[in-house]
Amino acid sequence: MNDQSAVQATLRQQAIELPSWAFGNSGTRFKVFAQAGVPRDPFEKVADAAQVHAHTGVAPSVALHIPWDLVNDMGRLRKHAEDLGVRLGTVNSNTFQDDDYKLGSLTHSEPRIRQKAIDHHYRCIDVMHATGSKDLKIWLPDGTNYPGQADTRARQDRLADSLAQIYARLAPDQRLVLEYKIFEPYFYTMDVPDWGTSYVHCLALGERAVVCLDTGHHAPNTNIEFIVAQLLRLGRLGAFDFNSRFYADDDLMVGAADPFQLFRIMWEVRCGGGLDPVTGVTFMLDQCHNIEAKIPGQIRSVMNVQEATAKALLVDTEALTKAQDAGDVLGANEIFMDAYHTDVRPMLRDLREAMGLAPDPVRAYAASGYAERICAERVGGAQAGWGA
Ligand code: PSV
Ligand code: MN
Fold first, then answer.
1. Domain containing 223 — which CATH number?
2. Does the beta carbon of 69 lie inside 6 Å of ligand 1?
3. CA–CA gap between residue 55 and residue 255 (Å, rounded)
4. Are 98 and 55 contacting, i.e. CB atoms less than 8 angstroms apart?
5. Residue 7 belongs to some domain of the structure
6. 68, 90, 96, 214: which to mutate for ligand 1, most atoms within 8 A of CB?
7. pTM for the predicted model, two decimal places
8. Which atom of ligand 1 is nearest to the CA of 21?
9. pLDDT digits over 95-121, tens only?
């Protein structure tokens, strides 16, 4: 697809989902640096997310975290989002902040606690009905710290049973999206540590169970794009949680640490048909802006995904296939790298203008006065943070 207008058409319909928690205060276990103007409630988080969409045109939905984003009337939050030109997207469950879950949630050996975790997911599904959300994303903090601590296989069996009960509650147009993570908060075993484990559970559940790939959740040097290719091939890549990492689950801005990796991922997405909305791959950011401004941080991240996508779309597939078939190793690599080295920023500026937007979203946001306005208006109340 090298014809510019076809490339632009694909980029125009790209949808990048924003996480509500990116707009609240966040930090490390050492320090959370509060920022002026940070939202005090989910309504203000959604308003900030709507700014990102207003300036980029490709971030039309906001993912929620339950219970952080619970309000009395979720329908009112939905209406608020729609009035601001966005919609509520994936609902993320949370079983990592309750003392009961110290030894597990959906895997817990005690029936009462396991039921409590299942009930939490039922509540998330109720939220989905009120918000119109189609995806229930489960990232499970469950795991163990020491060899011998628990029966690993029994935990898998309980997990399978818990997931089956949750899956059975979903409406026919809703999906269960199972995220994996190699380590943390536990360090010996995680109960869903890798894509294979997630995939195995999804297969057992049914067609509407799909895998979420968080780019920060792998061992160093993992070939993530290979996993992308495989999951797309199997029809089970449901979602990305995009972010960058230098060391572990850093949650830095996507495309900041390794733009080449992001390009390679988007190339495999393109090859596997994942840019076509019918395949149902959700491109979500899962980031925390600990020291940088949050709204521009999200804008920059959206632009980074757009740039990687544009470059992936510029790969001359015909020439590449020819070179590959001829066994021309260097030629194929050169064609691939040519696309990566293309400066796609002018094309994206043109695209934004064609969409009726300012060509430079970061500067347009800075000039809009929104940052000054929220700093002046959002005085008093408790600022939202990672965890509330
Ligand atoms: C876990 O590290 C994770 O990536 C999950 O997606 C959670 O929902 C999210 O972080 C919370 O920030
Ligand atoms: Mn994640």
1. 3.20.20.150
2. no
3. 19
4. no
5. no
6. 214
7. 0.97
8. 12
9. 999 999 999 999 999 999 999 999 999
